[in-house]
Amino acid sequence: MNESMNESPAIFDPNARPSLVGKTRAQLAEALAAIGVPERERRMRVGQLWHWIYYQGSTSFDVMLNVSKALRAKLAETYTLERPQVVAAQLSLDGTRKWLIRLPPVDAKDKGAEIECVYIPESDRGTLCISSQVGCTLTCTFCHTGTQKLVRNLTAQEIVQQLIVARDMLGDFPGLERPEDGGLIPVGEGVRPVSNIVFMGMGEPLYNFDEVNDAIGVLTDGEGLSLSKRRITVSTSGVVPQIAPLGETSGTMLAISLHATNDELRNKLVPLNKKYPLKDLLDACRNYPGAANSRRITFEYVMLKGVNDSPKEARELVRMLKGIPAKINLIPFNPWPGAQYECSDWETIETFSDIVFNAGYASPVRTPRGRDILAACGQLKSETEKLRARARLALDDEA
Ligand code: SAH
Ligand code: SF4
Fold first, then answer.
1. Which of 89, 127, 153, 232 shows the smallest number of beta carbons within 10 Å?
2. Which of 37-51, 190-204, 248-262, 354-368 is predicted least confidently?
3. Closest Cα to atom 13 of ligand 1
4. What's the fold here for domain 20-78?
């Protein structure tokens, strides 16, 4: 299914009322102060707004019946509860959904940056893949985002809004209808359609640390969106100095985009490696606050034909991760126009994955999802079944 919802460009409106959706508690308190709510009342009012915005998913101040009529009118005069626009929605045959979200322009030159958000339902979870930046300043040679110049960091509000949009689209707020093709959302009883979040969309989250951290605070607030910290994974290409602070402040799960077992190759694939080489990166992982067998670090390894996919490298990978509570995720390379790499052959991936598997690591291959809408890696058809079953097995032991 392909649905284009709005083709017209976004126009900057200097008089637009700001949306409160996605704001932190501190920002909501400021918004209330700006319309004259006295300090002694603010905490209580923030609590009320919080419940309506994040627990109920309200789109209008009118429904906030525990807020006085006068204050509701004042709020509506100054603010909105608008979400960013979904300009295109796609639904894959396997239930994966992709939304193109247009952010409101920040000035007259801005036509509204666009970010993609991907939703992957599975039997025991629903994972939302979100972005932390528009584009990326880093230039990993196998990554399409790396060829785009950075437009800007996303604000915490824009990061949180990605989940709000997903919950709207999936009918996952009280009173909303599930989409008609809701049968494609197989997540089990008691599990919300979006139960997990991965920062694996556009951008390097640890280069936008403060906003990402604030966003995680909103996403995991027990009185609102209530996601579990253990179900949020931040993926980094290896911004070493920010790894310990991430563990200390956010307490989320960590994923490292490793992709190579020696500095020479990793310098080429992930140029940030020249600044923070493998030894420093692995030391930071060893010391990651909260890392334990029950909270393992995920190492992502993209399978590039003839580049990093030999059995020797598989053995090397296992050797270098010794002593770190780790999971390994092999990602079939997802080609894009102009890319200088190809995805490894399936037999090669299988051989590599067997070595990793026999060394005691589960979850070796990330099953490509939403191939029909994402143009994911090559012609992986029935050959994937075996590995898919294994990957599914391994997923069971994730949080
Ligand atoms: N910047 C962060 C998070 C976003 S990228 C990071 O690099 O970790 C999320 C994951 O997708 C990373 O592991 C990245 O290496 C991987 N990736 C990027 N381009 C890819 C491609 N063309 N095919 C497969 N995986 C890719
Ligand atoms: Fe792509 Fe992540 Fe590298 Fe940025 S850091 S270029 S998003 S792989």
1. 89
2. 354-368
3. 257
4. DNA polymerase; domain 1 (1.10.150)
